[in-house]
Design brief:
mainly alpha; Arc Repressor Mutant, subunit A
Length: 173
Amino acid sequence: MDGATRFYVLYRWAYAEPESSFDDANKLAKSVGVELDALAGEFQLLDRKGDKVWLPIFSERLGRETRLKMLQNALKEGALATRPKIDQLHLALYLWEKGDLETLTSILGQTGVLTEDDSLWRTAQALLEIEQGQNSGVVCQEAKVLAQLLGSKRTLLRKAETAQGDMRQLRFL
């Protein structure tokens, strides 16, 4: 699993609240082999203000135009599979919440998430288990959408496989 995703899951496990000190977050980032500046800059996974770090949930993260656009561009360029799993999961959660199942199943196919044991689903399950034990309101919202997405995993995978088959047939013609 990539460092950005490991950081996100470990952060959620280690801290009950989305906010922590820069020093604590920096130690955690280094322990998984990533730089906090890269997580804030290149990956746009967290926000930093002074000596505080904030790890937004998917809806806060993708609610900002620049972050959503970054992932939409990766999708258009066929490069979403090269992004960290947490990016793929956050986009899946965002699309699920918006009710855009067609794009969601397309993304699953494009990123190769066609089996139940893919790391995207394992990451979602780990986050759900972590977040169900926390009382923070924003984290509870993410847990709710994670539970809904995981509950529909088999249906989404069937639709993604069907879409992949349709694309192969179109290429053959």
